Amino acid sequence: MAITSTEQRPPVGFRANVALKMGALSNRNYRRYWLGSLASVGAIQIATMAQGWLIVDKLGGSPLSIGFLGAATAIPTIIVNMFGGVLADRVDRRKLIMFVSAASSLLLLLLAILDSTNTIQIWHVIVLASVQGLVMGFDGPVRSSYFPLLIDRSHMMSAVALGSVMWQFSRLVTPIAGGILIRYGGTESVFYVGVVGWVSMLFVMISLRVKSPPPDKSRNVIEDMIEGVKFILARRDFILLIGLTYATHFFGMQYMQLMPFFVKRFDAGSTGFGTLFSIAGLGALTGTLVVGRIRSHPRVGYIMLGGSLTFTFAIMAFAFAPNFFIALVFLYIAGLANTIYFVVAMTVLQLRVPEHMRGRVMGVYTITFSLIPLGALMGGGIASIYDERIAVFIGASILAAIFVVAGITQPIIRNLDGTKLGDS
Length: 424
Known about the structure:
By secondary structure, the protein is an all-alpha fold. The protein is 81% helix and 0% strand.
């Protein structure tokens, strides 16, 4: 008997159940975008890791050199971020991601060639990092404002969690791969692999046909920027969540930039370097799975703040870990705890921001990722006077104090209800 087209299709209830279980990944366009993003995020992380190792191990750089590298990356990104957010609301976001992917590929290719020909110098790395920082100023806002176009609103928490999974899985895998590549192929091989990651993202965006909604160009860019800032300043929840995220990345993540010096202290080599980064990524990946279980808890605000404080204490303990293996334990805890805050905060922002403001708000929000390398300027300065342990401990202590004050004085944060995250 012939099977009709109706009989070939799964029942509607079945499709709905599959969509519920897969979340945002039930959307074909989002799946492709997520995989392409995974490749480019891996390129970002593996290249950042290799730059620090190149400066410290191959070129004999100091903690201050790492600080300058961080500042060279962060300052251009911060300058461009808000403009990048405005641009994300005014142009085809798909084409903007294509531009970022192509430019990043070319910059990494130039760095790889300089490294493989042994003509590389510290100033080369810093200058190329600053140009890459300019390009990445567009990347964060446009990514954060593009993926909601690919999904249903009901899948927002899923998409945010999957975005975190992407970053954390990359943090788990790429450092180990990077450590092996550095050991057997040198840092130049890492940069060539990074080129492949960005080119993969470029091809994915070329294949997608989902475009941005028509923008309102009736006002100029400056007016749009001011409107975005005014929107944030009028929302206490946005000010607090963005501000706490800024503080977390500036004060709490200094250990990432100073990691080469911890590796030397533990005498762990390039493989140990990759392992330290990867264990933090494994913790963060675990944290993403934990968030999936507690995201609807009515006291998710308290859980979020508790996760942030646990993160700070774990980083303090890591700074003075007596050996490599104990350091791994505390980095795992830190990665897990910090992800709880990140996913909840990002979900609240994405659910509460109007679509026409999304690019501008995300432009301000994604400045946070530039504060990781910028915090290295503070950490590198302290480490050059004392050592990397003191630098990381001081940063984490300041962050702990900030979260304690916020938890005590700001009920709008501690009383966040996981069943009402989208409520304005």
